[in-house]
Automatic annotation (TrEMBL):
PANTHER family named in the record: DESICCATION-LIKE PROTEIN, OS05G0151100 PROTEIN
Lineage: Bacteria, Pseudomonadati, Pseudomonadota, Alphaproteobacteria, Sphingomonadales
UniProt protein name: Ferritin-like domain-containing protein
Coiled-coil segments on the chain, per record: none
Superkingdom of origin organism: Bacteria
Organism: Croceibacterium mercuriale
Short name of any one Pfam family annotated for the protein: Ferritin_2
Length: 327
């Protein structure tokens, strides 16, 4: 599906000196194999497993591998360098299926945003790998194909963005690229927020909060750019995608204090009209809080499977590390 192209909103103010210190933050970290202490983690399915801070950071690293590969291919036509996909002990990383260069000629501002986000995501990969040291997992096999059998098409069909038999290629236009980015960015924000209580080391918690803030900036850029285009089909697509994510991540007990809800995911459809028109750039609950997802809920979305599984969707053989099951 190729959506109409219209002028994007004027560029956000550039952020100065945003990357220089990212990789140095963990310089004094202890060996990651011994990072953190074990603790109990419970999810809505009531399954429990003892995990460490290193397990949580490796879970985040898998998601950063995925985001980095998507954005880098979109802006460069190539992904992460091989030295950023190996394990901490040097084992080779997995393969990437799909990925393509997006032609941003008609929409140079979205291209500028995409290049910035791509650099940020690569920095996150390097940052987490430095933190984990020899315990860093290798990049798993990743599928970011935009063809008929790829996960983007599967997700778009399930959401009703394209009809059964239709194809959704996020590399075919700036608008489709933004919708592909919309799938990832909102999930990344909820993943980092949900993982925050799992970290016991305050240094790692502060660093994770820093990454969470950047992912939230990214999500806001994507959501604002989509909204500013004023194209009804784009706005409808975000609602369809958000509803599909809510279906995948299952029913949970609402907790407005912690930012958890069974129907918490939101698209960008505004409310009101005229002088009361209100956008929905920041998807928050009634307390003004962003919402959280457990690791299992996040995996259900990226695996494109609401059931119990350890693989599928964007990770055809699953993520690497201790946390890899939807339960």
């Amino acid at each position: 599906m190729t959506l109409p192209q219209e002028q994007v909103m004027e560029a956000f103010e550039s952020r100065a000196e945003r990357r220089a210190d990212r990789r140095a933050f963990f310089t004094a970290a202890v060996g990651a194999a011994a990072v953190g202490s074990a603790f109990a983690y419970s999810n809505p399915a009531a399954a429990q497993a003892a995990v460490t801070d290193a397990d949580v950071l490796n879970f985040a690293l898998n998601l950063e591998y995925l985001e980095a590969q998507f954005y880098l291919f979109a802006v460069n036509g190539a992904g992460l360098p091989a030295n950023l996909t190996t394990s901490g002990s040097g084992a080779a990383g997995g393969t990437v299926t799909g990925g393509a260069l997006v032609n941003f000629t008609s929409d140079p501002l979205t291209g500028a945003y995409a290049r910035e986000i791509a650099a940020d995501e690569q920095a996150h990969v390097a940052f987490l790998r430095t933190a984990l040291g020899s315990a860093a997992v290798a990049m798993p096999n990743i599928n970011i194909s935009g063809d008929a059998n790829g996960p983007f098409t599967a997700a778009a069909r399930a959401a009703g963005v394209v009809p059964a038999g239709g194809v959704f290629n996020p590399y075919s236009s700036p608008e489709n690229f933004l919708l592909g980015a919309f799938i990832f960015e909102d999930v990344g924000v909820t993943a980092y927020k949900g993982a925050a209580p799992l970290l016991t080391n305050k240094t790692f918690l502060e660093a994770a909060a820093g990454i969470l803030a950047v992912e939230a900036y990214h999500a806001a850029i994507v959501r604002t750019t989509l909204y500013a285009k004023g194209i009804p089909a784009l706005i409808d697509a975000t609602e369809q995608i958000s509803n599909a994510r809510d279906t995948l991540d299952g029913t949970v007990t609402d907790d407005l204090i912690r930012g958890i809800g069974a129907d918490a995911d939101q698209g960008i459809r505004p409310t009101g009209s005229g002088s009361t028109l209100t956008s929905n750039i920041a998807p928050l609950n009634s307390n003004g809080l962003a919402y959280s997802r457990t690791t299992g809920q996040v995996l259900k979305i990226v695996y494109l499977n609401a059931g119990t599984t350890t693989m599928g969707g964007f990770f055809p053989n699953g993520v690497n590390g201790t946390i890899r099951s939807t339960t």
